[in-house]
Amino acid sequence: MSTLAHTMMTAARSADSGLASPGELDRYPYAEASVADRVGPPAWEGADPELGRVGRRAAGNRGRGLHGQLVQQLGQMIVSGDLGADRPLVPEEIGQRFEVSRTVVRESLRVLEAKGLVSARPNVGTRVRPVSDWNLLDPDIIEWRAFGPQRDDQRRELSELRWTIEPLAARLAAGHGREDVQQRLADMVEIMGHAMGQGDALTFSRADMEFHALLIQIAGNRMLEHLSGIVSAALQVSGGPVTGCDRASDASLAHHGRIVEALAAGDGGAAEAAMRQLLTVHPEVERVVPAPREH
Description:
Number of strands: 5
Number of helices: 13
Oligomer: single chain
Low-confidence stretches: 13-41, 49-63, 239-244, 282-295
Mean pLDDT: 75
Helix content: 55-70%
Distance between the termini: 30 Å
C-alpha cells in the first residue's frame, strides 16, 4: 500500500470514529404528511425540542453549533414541506421553540435567505419561498431533498445531471490533464482498491469523491469546475437507483482505472465511454441511505 493510501485510510477512520456503523446510519425524521395536512400556523412538533440544550453540550450535534443546527432544522422542515410556501416565520417564536438567542435566529434566517428558502421584507416579515425560488444546486438543499419526501426526484435529477456533466468532463480532461493530477487520480483508484479489500466503505467513498472532483477540475472548463461540489454532494446522498461508482465493486474499480488509462493516453473518447459505463444505472440494486453530510 502506498503512503498516501495508508494515510488517507487512517485519517478517515480517525476523523469519523464517532459515526454510526453501516446499517445504523441516522436518517432525518421527515414527516410524510400531505400538503393538505400541513395548513395552519407553524407546527414545530417535528423539530428537535432539545436543539438549544444539545448545542450547549461539549459534544454538540455532530459537531454543529447552535447556528448550524438551527439552519439544518429549519431547512429540513422547509424542504420537507412541513413549513410550506408563504408560511410566516416569526423570529420570536423560533427563538422560544428552540431556546436560542435572537442573534442565532437572525443569522440562521439570513443563511436560509441566501439559499432562496425564505425571504424577508419590511412590513411583511420572513416567509417561506416556493420551490421555484430555491437554489436547488446548493449542497445543503441537495442533502435535505435527498432525505425528505422528494428523495426519489432528487436522486433521479442528480443522476441525470451527472450523466450530463461527467462524461463531458472526462473527454475534456484527456486533453488538459497534468501528470501530477493524473497521478493523483491513479492514487485515488489505488486507495479505493485497498479500501474495498478491507471493507472500508468510508475511505472508498472519500477517495471516490476526490476522484470525480479532480476529474472535473482538470477538464479546463471553469463552469464545469464550479459544478464539482454538486457532484460531490450527489455522491454523498445518492441512493435508490445507483450508479456503478456508488458502491465498492470490482467493476467500479475497473471503470475508474480505465478512465485513468484513457486520460494518460490522451484518448478523450475512451475516457468518456468509460465514464458512461461507470455511471450506468442498476435499478435492481437497493441501498441504505447514508448519513447526512457533516458541516
